[in-house]
């Protein structure tokens, strides 16, 4: 059975991915600090296809144990394995020189260190697994473009994108390669966008543009984005290490 491990699955894109996977009959292991109530209520109807792992992914020294717990939930009938590093935060939205350091450190742990360490742990623990296995690191246009006030966010996503590229290239030499890719979902109508709109123009120079996205209905729904990502993952061939941008996938 196709099995999806999804971090940040309590809200936004992660929850939309989880719902879609369950509706399609796949198995899901969902990681976050809290549980989405709508998903929780699906536990009984989905006949053992849904497992929750409670974890704060900023607790960097617990990440290896989190991966051990995830792996312990895998069933023997897994024929395709997907690991989506989706959890993320955008704060602190502040110019460099004014950053709140505690929030900056948390963001670096959640957006960069957690997916990087979990990718490493996943590859280590699935080396002998020779069916299709894919790691997706959820990226952003901010990995490629600079925005004033997003120094922390842009740099964490850029770091993760380079990590993903290196992992993808390395895996090409492996006997049982994992595919490791970045996926940029574009702007979505989630809590993260609410946080972005709550920033003022002094801290975030592009603030007005993001208000316009919401007012003009230009934010995509997480359900739409989830569908595009799942269709991509079910394709037979992917380019290892590639940065897939939703804009290039929408026909
Ligand atoms: N929204 C956009 O426009 C947009 C654009 C480009 C890229 N992205 C990227 O897309 C991904 C999903 O974003 P989203 O908009 O869906 O975000 P969101 O609605 O804010 O959801 C974030 C998810 O991350 C989880 N999370 C936060 N802190 C965590 C922690 N310390 N440990 C474990 N889980 C944690 C949250 O769950 P708990 O609070 O329950 O832990 C939640 O499920 C992110 O990587 C983001 O950078 C978003």
UniProtKB/TrEMBL annotation:
GO terms assigned for molecular function: oxidoreductase activity
Record-given protein name: Benzil reductase ((S)-benzoin forming)
Transmembrane domains' residue ranges: none
Cellular localization per UniProt: Cytoplasm
Catalytic activity, EC: 1.1.1.320
Species the sequence originates in: Peribacillus huizhouensis
Taxonomy, superkingdom: Bacteria
PANTHER family in the cross-refs: SEPIAPTERIN REDUCTASE
Keyword line: Cytoplasm, NADP, Oxidoreductase
InterPro entries per the UniProt record, alphabetical: Biopterin_syn/organic_redct (IPR051721), NAD(P)-bd_dom_sf (IPR036291), Sc_DH/Rdtase_CS (IPR020904), SDR_fam (IPR002347)
Family: Belongs to the short-chain dehydrogenases/reductases (SDR) family.
